[in-house]
Amino acid sequence: MERVSRRKRARRGAGGSCTLHQPLRCAESNAASLGRFWRGKGRCPGDNMIWWVLAAVLVLLVLAELKTSRSDGTLVRAHPYRQMLPYLVTTPNSAITLYDEQINAEPLLAFIEAQRELGKDVDVTDCLLAAIAVALDESPRINRFVIGRRLYQRHARKVSFSALRRKKDRRAEVAAVQLTVKNDWAFDDLHRALQSSIAIERSGQRTYTDRELRATLALPRPLLGFAVAALKWLDRRNLLPASFLDKDPLYCSVFLANLGSINMRPGYHHLYEWGNCPLFVVAGKIAPTPVVEAGAVVVRQILPLRISFDERIDDGINANDALLAAKRVLEDPFAQLGCLRPDGSDRVLLRAAPTS
Predict the structure, then answer these.
(1) Is the dihedral of CA 316, 322, 328, 333 positive or negative?
(2) CATH code given to domain 72-336
(3) Which of 9, 147, 198, 257 has its CA 20 to 30 A from that of 94?
């Protein structure tokens, strides 16, 4: 009986039962069990891997939230009020500010006629884009955008515009074209780039935007909604590649729609919840309009503009300065744009006016 009792006690000790008479054996047994668990030899071999995966995902999410660098802009350390504004006003359209401007278009029409006499197919869109480029250079704080509730200074002057794929045909498809205005460009350079881009859109070839839209629209509706939401999530965390941002026309400084080219009046346009475009300019048709000059009512050819502005990027003072710069260019194009003399002596860069 005594021999059997000893065997039972030995088996209990080997099984991990802890008694006052076996403290050392109990500790060794528990340590061995813990070691087998962490080496994946315990009763739950998948638990260790799951915890490591969850930890890795958490680290990646934290790093994504902390990432501030982007290919198209540099983070701005603005005033605390402006840093807080994107948290209080979370979307472009909730921060939209509307402007209305009238441009005396008589000098502009004369300039366009002079350019056409030289064999250049210049129109109002060319001049509007040139004026916008000058305004962005004179007021660089307008060339900003908000993404992920952070404020960024855009690296380049990117202007996008809508164009009909068949000239003067109101029933034709509308294409969105983007140009990056280089610092050494004059009006002629912008005009050539504009004509080249329009020629591609009207050639019948599928552009990058066409292929992108066809691919995404081929997805089932629930999957398409998930894909768009995923891209927005990546964009807010600065994870979209430069190749994606560079080709999308809604990642731009300003978007222009010249409705006057199809004899339409302008309207105020919303800002898109896709991309990072903070300014939308709509131009209407030029028409005789009574205006007051020196206390007298006169009739002038007026180009109406309607501007939608995301106030989160900057205040109204700088927005007004940019608008006045564009107005100055459009009302004095011979001096501000030039490019009429054969020797190029009147070539003017699309840059800020020199300060005296």
Answers:
(1) negative
(2) 3.30.559.10
(3) 257
pTM of the prediction? Answer: 0.83
Domain boundaries defined on the chain:
2-63, 72-336
Angle CA 45–49–50, to nearest 5:
105
d(CA 52, CA 285): 63
The phi-psi region of residue 196 (left if phi > 0; otherwise alpha if psi is between -120 and 50; otherwise beta) is alpha
Rounded distance between C-alpha atoms, residue 106 and residue 120, angstroms: 19
Nearest Cα residue to 213 out of 232, 234, 227? 227
- What is the distance between the alpha carbons of residues 241 and 86, in angstroms, rounded to a whole number? 24
Tell me: the pLDDT tens digits for 258-274?
999 999 999 999 999 99
| 75 beta partners | 152
pLDDT tens-digit series, residues 165-190:
666 666 667 888 999 999 999 999 99
At 336, the amino acid letter reads Q
